[in-house]
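>> received
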Amino acid sequence: MSEPDSELENPKPANQATYRTPRWVIVTGVVALVLVLLVVVVLATSLGGEHGPQRHEPAVTYFVA
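>> returned
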């Protein structure tokens, strides 16, 4: 009988976790989720402007005489 009496009287439920997630893991997850949602909103609403290979090239106009 090496166990204290308090553990015998009040055993922990089998489904109860004995650890907590570290704060830095939670903060990192929230920051990553916010960044992903920000990228989705920018892509869905076209707030980022025109993108593609033609963005950095001058517009070429052809004149037919």
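>> The chain has a mean pLDDT of 78.
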